[in-house]
Amino acid sequence: MSLFSTKSDLPNYKLRYAVFLGIVLLAFLVLLVRLRKIQLVQGNQYREMSIDNFVSERRVVPFRGMIYDRNGSLLVDNQPSFDLYLTPAFCTKESFEKTMTRLTEYLGLNEEEVDKTTRLYSNRKGLDRFLPILVHREMSWDELAIVEQNKDKLEGVEVQPAVKRVYPMGKLAAHLLGYLGEISPSELAARKGGDYRQGDYIGKAGVEKAFEKSLHGKSGLKKVVVDAKGQKMPEAIAKKILGDNGVIVPVKPGANLILSIDARLQKLAEERFPGQEGAVVAVEPKTGFILAMVSKPAFDPNLISGNVDVRVWSALVHDVDKPLTNRATQQHYPPGSTFKPFTGLAALSTEGFTSETKELCTGGLRFGDHYFRCWRSGGHGRLSIHRAVVQSCDVFFYKAGLAAGIDRIAQVARSFGFGSKSGIRSCIEVPGIIPDKAWYKAHTKWGFLPGFTLSDSIGQGDVNVTPLQLAMAYAALSNGGILYRPQVVLREETPDGKVIKQYEPIVRGHVDASDENLKVLVEALTGVVNEAGGTAYYRRPRNVTFKAAGKTGTAQVVKQFADRGRNLPYDFRDHALFAGWAPADDPEIAVAVINEHGRHGSSGAAPLVMEMITYYLVQLRAEKTDDNEDGSLDEDPTKKKSLGGVN
User: Fold this and answer.
1) Average pLDDT, the chain
2) Rounded to two decimals, what is the model's pTM?
3) Which of 155, 190, 301, 480 is exposed most, by the fewest CB atoms within 10 A?
4) 337 a catalytic residue
C-alpha cells in the first residue's frame, strides 16, 4: 500500500511538515536565546542564587571590652570558648530527634537545654528555620572533641567560637564589677532592633551593667559555606566559592574601661577587713572618683557569670548573709557619732551658738521624762565644740541639736548628700533617711516629738546613711565643701589604647556651711586623731609625715542592754564606724568603714582606715616613685594586647 492514498495528499503533507519543522526550529531558536540570556547575561545572578543554597550567613559576636584598674591591672578578662548551635533548616523532624538524643548522650544535656531547643525548633517557620538555635554553652575541650568526631551523625549541628567572661582576681571588687547573665525576654524586648539576640550575655550588675553599651561592641556578619547537613565546609572550598573572606559587616569589639579603683588598695581593704559583714569606701576627695569599694561578704563572679549552675545561684540568693547585696550602697545604717560633725555645723549656723560656746556634760541629759545618757557615765565636764568632737561627747551634741532644731540639721545633712542617692552609675542605691518634722508626720502615727531631735543629733534615732554617702560627706568636709558625684570609670579606650571618652569630675553641689565653720570642724576632726583624749588618738598613723583626720562612731543595734560587751549575742552587738581622710590639710584620700556588730569605732573600724590611708600615701607612693625611676611606667600599662582587641 502506498504511503499516500492519492497524489493530491502529497502537497498537504509537505505543507504540514514545513509548518512543523518551522515550529521546532523556532522553539530551538527561543531556547538558544534563553540559554544565552541565562548563561551570559544573567549568569552571575543565577550563580549567586545557587551559591545561596549552600552558603549560610553567620553573626559574629564581638569581643566584650576588658576592664582594668587605674594602674593597668586586669580585673575582667575574656577567654576563648565554644558554643553548640543547631539550625532547623538542615534537619528533618526525625533527624532532629536523633541528633538531640545523641547530643544528650555525648554532652549530658540537661532537661532545660533539651526542652528549650525542642520548643524553639518546633516554633521556627519559614526563613526563621535558617536561624541557628543555641543548644549548649561553653563546651569543654572533651565535649568539643566528641562533637567533632561524630559530626556526621549530627545533622544541623555546628560549633561556633565564643568568648567566656572571667574575673582573674575572683571576689576582688565583685559588687563593683558585677557579672554577666543571659539576656531575659524583657531585656531583649527593650532592646528590640538592637545588637542583641536570644542567648546573648548582658551585664546584670555593677560596671558590667552600667556600661553595657560601651563594653558590648557591635556584631558583624559573615558568610560560611555549609553542606546539606548544615556542617561547615573546609576553608579551601569556602574560599573558592566566596572568592574572599566572606565578611559582610565587620565586627566592632567593645571598649576597654579604665577604672578609678586601685586593685592593691582594694585587696588590702578586703583582706584586712576586721569583721564578717560590712563595707568600705575610699574616694579621692578632690574629684569624687572611687579608689576602693568593699562589701562583705562577697561572691565570686566567675561562678555566676555566663553559664550558671542553678544550685550555686540558689545558694547565693538564699544565703542569710546576703552576699549579693552591695552593702556600700544598698544597705543603710545609723551613723552614730560620725554624724555629730553635721549636727555641729547646723548648730554653728544658728544665732548665739559659736565655736566658743561651752556646754556642761555630767554624764547625761534629762529631757522631758527621759534621761539621755552620754557614753562616758562620769561626764566630760564643760567643753566647746572642738573638744566635744575630739572626745565625742553625746550631751554636747544633744544640746547642739536642740539649738539647731531638727529641720536645720536635716537641711545641712542633705547638703552633704545624706538622704538622697549619690548618682553613682555602677551601683544600685538606697537613699537613706534624714528625718525632719515633715518626715515624721508622713511616716509615724504620732508625728514629730521633740525628743526625736536628741537621738537624731548623735546619729541614732531614725537617721540612716549608706557607707558611700558617709565617705562622700567626709570628702566634702575635707575639700572645703564641694560635694562630688562618685564615679568609678576614668576613661574608655579602644583595644589598641586610643582614648574614646575621658570622664571628668562632676560636682553635685556645695554644702550648706560657711568656710569658717567648716574650718572649725576640720580642726576638731584632726584633733580626734592627733590630740590626747581623742577617740582615735591611739590609732593614729605613726612615723609618717602627714596627719589624718576623722571621727569614730558606735551605732546601737538594739536600744538597751546592761552588758554591751562580749557576752552580747552577735546580732545585737553595736556597729563600729570610722570616717576620715588624709592628709588633714590637703586631702588625697577619704575612707569610710562600717563593721557590722564590730562594737566600737575606735577598735573595730579606725585601724583599717588608718592602715589604708598609710598604705595609699606612703607605700603605694613609694612604689610609684620607684617605678618612675626605672622607667617601667613610661608606657601606659593599660595598653596591653589581649583577647579584647582581636576578632
Assistant:
1) 86
2) 0.82
3) 190
4) yes
